[in-house]
Amino acid sequence: MEFMPSLLPPLTSLLCQERGIKDETHKSYQNWIPFEIYLINIFLNRFFEVVPGAFAWATLIAIVFFSWTAPGWVAIFIILFDTYWFLKTLYFSIHMRAAFREMRSRMKKNWLRELNGLSDKNVRVPFGWRDIYHLVIIPMYNEPYGVVAESLRSLAGINYPKDKLIVVLGTEAHVPEARATAAQLAQDFGSLFLRFLVTEHVLDTANEIPGKGSNETWAAKEAKKLIDKIGIPYERILVSSLDSDTQVFPEYFGVVTHAFLTCASPQRSSFQPVPLFINNVFTAPALARVIAFSASFWHLIQQSRPERLTTFSSHTMPFQALVEIGFWHTHVVSEDSRIFWQCFLHYHGDWRVEPIFYPVAMDANVAPTFWRTMANVYKQQRRWGWGCENIPYLLSGFIRDKKILMRKKVYWVFHIIEGFHSWATNAIIIFSLGWLPIVLGGALFRVSVLSFNLPRITRTIMMLAMVGIVSSAVLSILLLPPKPAWFKRRHYILYFVQWLLSPLTLIIFGAFPALEAQTRLMFGGKWRLGFWVTPKFR
Q1: How many angstroms separate the CA atoms of 123 and 161, rounded?
Q2: Edge-to-edge strands, sheet with 247-248
Q3: pLDDT one-digit tens code per residue, 446-459
Q4: How far apart are CA 477 and CA 495, in angstroms?
């Protein structure tokens, strides 16, 4: 009844007419309203699913069409767009360097000492850091023992009391071969923490899809039973969702605990580290390395723009809030970003992500062969691009929720749609469509001054934009983990030059998978993506 009340009178009138009821006050129509409102909701949700893909394709088709019918205007648009992209590159480079400096600074601190030095006036909760427990959930599918063991070994090496950690290893009942791996991991690491729990998720095929979200939710509910038995208050627990390949740095839990205690709204905030895809970076092909570092740098940039920050992959949040919202959605692929929107809508816009400017290490996408690696990279990027499934969820939620401030709605609608649209179209426009007015514009345009200067202007702008690539190349070398014995000085040159592959990666492994994801969402039905588990290979 809360959903678009202004539509109820005309809707019920139409329904009565269609069903042959002359008196709209007839009590029987009251029984239809919930179902009809449900249909409206479904219709709007489906409409919103079409929006991102339709917007992206309309943009690309329009550029092609007007390159033929109005080449001069398209040429001007391309010059202006390239200039905008150049300025945006400078903007991103500034943010990336600032965030990098902050991250390096935080990595040098002893955060246990920082916690001990906190004064009561800086703490925003009625308890101290020693009262806080950490629930760590690690879903696994069928990863090799060594991958998950390295993640658990990093937990064992933290500069934080390990008797404050409850570690949950979430396995899948339909993957029985993982049981032996989980049992061995429990034997090797189980005694190092307050509790070590192995769960076995039984898939509910009617309401769930196989994936991280359904596994995590099962694991969290099983952990809740343990927590209730121990008697730990929910408000004193922080839950960290980690991928099976996520290796935390020694100060992670000190940093995130400090952020929780001192942020403006501790129980209404998520805490996001910087994912660095560097665990196996030395075994990755050059293309995969560039893509891995590019993803890391994007998330580094987002740390310095907290107003736009949402959760991604490994992150931390209050357990009390997780329980109140009903845990992770079990029917979505992008559960890592969806959890932010769940909280945002549940608390009527009173939710934010606090950047902690501290990294976690994850795997770059590597497979036994080059072509298998490229295929896996594309599939991973497409899965990330499937985050566009949050757009209809968010828009529908904004329509239903009257308590969220309009400025917040407008802000987030613009940025989420603009973000996915840019992801799917910008690289294609910049690197592929600049020549279209010359090819399609006809003989009259080809002899014009604008046609003569268009490639020269765009080439100059692109050369200036190389500053972003140079910054990325330098930072990628600084972020390299300890080098293997075979790594020589000449490899630094290779790792610098590899960034010339950026245009290729932006189009083939950036725009194309994002565009495919949005197109699949637009068509719906059998075209929808399910959860794809990235194979781990080292």
Answers
A1: 20
A2: 195-201, 165-172, 133-139, 237-241, 315-318, 269-277, 352-362, 247-248
A3: 878 888 778 888 87
A4: 7
Tokens of 534: 């990235």
SS3 245: coil
Amino acid at 486: W
Q: Averaged over 247-276, what is the pLDDT?
A: 97
Nearest-angstrom CA–CA distance, 459 and 398: 43
Helix, strand, coil percent content, the chain, rounded in steps of 5: 65, 10, 25
Quick one: pLDDT at residue 44?
Answer: 85
Integer Cα distance of 337 and 342 in angstroms: 9
φ/ψ (deg, to 5) at 358: -140, 140
All structural domains of the chain: 122-291+306-370 (3.90.550.10)
Label residue 190 exposed, middle or buried (CB < 10 Å: 0-12, 13-18, 19+): middle
Lowest mean pLDDT among 20-24, 177-181, 347-351: 20-24
Q: How far apart are CA 313 and CA 333, in angstroms?
A: 12
CB contact at 8 A, 140 and 536: no
The SS3 call for residue 476 is helix
Tens-place pLDDT, residues 208-244: 999 999 999 999 999 999 999 999 999 999 999 999 9
> Which structure tokens are listed for 326?
């009903």
The CA-CA-CA angle for residues 11, 15, 20, to 5°, reads 150
**Rounded to two decimals, what is the model's pTM?**
0.89
- Whether 8 has a pLDDT exceeding 80, the answer reads no
